[in-house]
Design a protein that fits this description.
The chain is α/β, with parallel strands linked by helices. The protein contains 4 helices and 4 strands; from the N terminus they run E-H-E-H-E-H-E-H. The chain has a 4-stranded parallel β-sheet with strand order 3-2-1-4, covered by helices on one side. It is globular.
C-alpha cells in the first residue's frame, strides 16, 4: 500500500524519434528534489532513431514499453500507467518537454497537495526550437 503523504511519483514519457531531446528530459527529471520515489516509464511509439539507446544511457534500468500500430495518445499513456507501481501521483510528459529547475515536479504537485478536490495540475511548456507550430 502507498503511503498517502509520500511523494511517490510515476512519470510516463511518450516518445517517437525523440533522440534529440530524451537525454535532456530524463536528466532533468532525475534531478528533481523533494520526491520520495520517482518511477519513469517510456512508451515508445516505433522510434527509428536512437531514442531508446540514449534513454538507456541515462538510466540502464529504465522501463520501456513498445507501442506499435496507429498512434493514440490516450492508449500510449494508459500502457505506461499500467507499468507504474506504488505511486501517489502520475505525471504525463512528452520527451521533447524538458522540466526546468530541480523543483519543477514539486511545484507541479503543490496544488494537488494543498487542495484535495483538485484532480490535475499543469505546468507551462516552453517550446524547444524544434517544436511544431501547434506546440508553441
Amino acid at each position: 500500500m502507498v503511503e498517502f503523504m509520500k511523494r511517490n511519483v510515476g512519470v510516463v514519457i511518450r516518445t517517437k524519434n525523440e533522440s534529440r531531446w530524451i537525454r535532456f528530459c530524463l536528466t532533468s527529471l532525475y534531478k528533481q528534489k523533494k520526491i520520495d520515489k520517482l518511477s519513469v516509464v517510456i512508451v515508445d511509439c516505433d522510434s527509428i532513431d536512437f531514442t531508446i539507446e540514449k534513454a538507456k544511457k541515462v538510466n540502464p534500468k529504465l522501463k520501456v514499453v513498445k507501442y506499435h500500430g496507429e498512434y493514440f495518445p490516450g492508449h500510449a499513456i494508459n500502457l505506461g500507467i499500467k507499468e507504474l507501481k506504488n505511486i501517489n501521483y502520475v505525471v504525463i510528459l512528452s520527451a521533447h518537454c524538458i522540466p526546468i529547475g530541480s523543483d519543477w515536479l514539486s511545484k507541479l504537485l503543490k496544488p494537488l497537495e494543498e487542495n484535495k478536490e483538485i484532480a490535475g495540475s499543469y505546468c507551462r511548456q516552453i517550446p524547444t526550437p524544434a517544436s511544431s507550430h501547434e506546440n508553441r
